[in-house]
């Protein structure tokens, strides 16, 4: 898994793989000057629609355009079929796991996972214990990070079960590509992603409280315009056709949530919240929160409003809990995991800690509650002083870290200014779990490490994004509906 890099276009023997046969002639016949012009046009389009993100802690703190690469990442229909089946399986197990740890705790009683990883987890919310959610769905929107390595197989790198972001870039990337290269879309049937907002809205309405009307009222709760993902919040609210609200726009009366409108109060049945647990309700969590809604959790526990994703889903985001996911899948579903985990050492275990300390220069070490590529050590890219400093952190708080091999992430052709060159990528498909079925639009957000040799794809650290195409081996796609599982 840490060997030679697998190139998704050229494969191992240098022959073009089936997925890329459709765009190989285009890449070979396109002048670099033409591609550069199209790259500039793409940047102009992103600036015009205001697709930006902010980096917390950045000295300049300005809004940035996320870098976009005009060369798509291509998957065949058979590759996608296997991946999507694995995603459905994994998210189903995640929902069963969360319902269990806040319920009977059978997975803990069976010794599958240590109790302290749950009950001492900072993301564990005691308020949710014994709380029966409608349809037992905790994670309505999941973003599962997938990588491909030198053995050509797909692995889950991370589960994002709180408030996964990035879907707006998936949608805008496709819009831009269709405008810049309409001939490619005319010549090849590429599975659509533009129905994602419809699928998301259907999912949210399906998990409304049992007392909700036939067409439940949905609102998207944002922390406000100073949040780094505010563009995505406003974008999704617009595409969904729902109100974008801040905490001050909502109030609770008699355990029912209402939205202030010019026509008077309007009841809200489902809240797609892009606000962390601790800030949701100052009466239940942080009393100094000015972003939440007083009384929201009381209305939630009364069964009068659905929060998506549910409170307390952060337990499933934990990188230490991630290491138990294969066992969790087997425990709840009685099946072998379709998508494998990356081999991981739990530094909380003495033997693993010993191994990690002896091999720090070879490994990637991550904080179990970290995100965005922060708080991690990339051993092969670090000097001796940095490694020694990190070793001291590990020894003082081993429970806070896991370690993984330095992964040979697959590479895809990328336009880097002077021409086409391979760059490392990962993929974040978005899985929607509703009361009726699981929905996945084909593809997802491909993130690319634009710096030569870099393995860090996060936009906050110099990464960019690509459009992700799913095609059939013969270049023809299946009918344009989302992947769904009953």
TrEMBL record:
Limits of the Circularly permuted ATP-grasp type domain: 72-449
Domain of life, source organism: Bacteria
Pfam families: CP_ATPgrasp_2
Protein name: Circularly permuted ATP-grasp type 2 domain-containing protein
């Amino acid at each position: 898994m840490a060997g030679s890099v697998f190139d998704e276009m050229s494969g191992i023997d240098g022959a073009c793989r089936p997925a890329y046969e459709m765009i190989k002639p285009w890449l070979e016949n396109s002048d670099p000057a033409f591609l550069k012009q199209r790259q500039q046009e793409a940047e102009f389009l992103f600036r015009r629609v205001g697709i930006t993100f902010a980096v917390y802690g950045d000295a300049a703190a300005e809004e940035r355009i996320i870098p976009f690469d005009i060369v798509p990442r291509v998957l065949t229909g058979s590759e996608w079929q296997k991946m999507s089946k694995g995603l459905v399986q994994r998210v189903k197990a995640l929902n069963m796991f969360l319902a269990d740890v806040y319920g009977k705790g059978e997975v803990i009683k069976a010794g599958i996972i240590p109790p302290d990883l749950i009950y001492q987890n900072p993301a564990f919310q005691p308020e949710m214990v014994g709380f029966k959610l409608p349809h037992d769905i905790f994670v309505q929107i999941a973003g599962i990070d997938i990588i491909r390595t030198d053995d050509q197989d797909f692995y889950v790198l991370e589960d994002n079960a709180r408030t996964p972001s990035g879907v707006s870039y998936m949608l805008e990337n496709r819009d831009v590509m269709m405008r810049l290269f309409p001939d490619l879309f005319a010549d090849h049937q590429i599975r659509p992603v533009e129905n994602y907002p419809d699928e998301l809205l259907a999912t949210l309405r399906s998990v409304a409280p049992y007392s909700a009307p036939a067409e439940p009222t949905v609102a998207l709760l944002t922390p406000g315009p100073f949040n780094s993902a505010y563009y995505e919040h406003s974008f999704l609210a617009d595409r969904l056709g729902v109100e974008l609200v801040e905490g001050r726009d909502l109030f609770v009366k008699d355990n029912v949530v209402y939205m202030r409108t010019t026509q008077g109060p309007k009841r809200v049945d489902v809240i797609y919240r892009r606000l962390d647990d601790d800030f949701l309700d100052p009466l239940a969590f942080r009393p100094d929160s000015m972003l939440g809604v007083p009384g929201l959790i009381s209305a939630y526990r009364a069964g009068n409003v659905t929060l998506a994703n549910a409170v307390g889903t952060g337990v499933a985001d934990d990188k230490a809990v991630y290491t138990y996911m294969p066992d969790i899948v087997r425990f709840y579903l009685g099946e072998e995991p379709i998508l494998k985990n990356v081999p991981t050492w739990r530094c909380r275990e003495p033997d693993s800690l010993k191994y990690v300390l002896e091999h720090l220069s070879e490994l990637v070490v991550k904080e179990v509650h970290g995100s965005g590529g922060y708080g991690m050590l990339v051993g092969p890219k670090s000097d001796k002083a940095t490694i020694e400093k990190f070793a001291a952190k590990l020894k003082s708080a081993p429970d806070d870290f896991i370690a993984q091999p330095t992964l040979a992430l697959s590479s895809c052709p990328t336009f880097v200014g002077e021409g086409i060159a391979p760059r490392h990528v990962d993929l974040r498909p978005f899985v929607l779990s509703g009361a009726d079925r699981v929905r996945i639009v084909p593809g997802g957000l491909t993130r690319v490490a634009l710096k030569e040799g870099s393995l860090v794809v996060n936009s906050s650290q110099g990464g960019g994004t690509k459009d992700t195409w799913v095609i059939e081996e013969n270049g023809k796609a299946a009918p344009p509906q989302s992947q769904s599982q009953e």
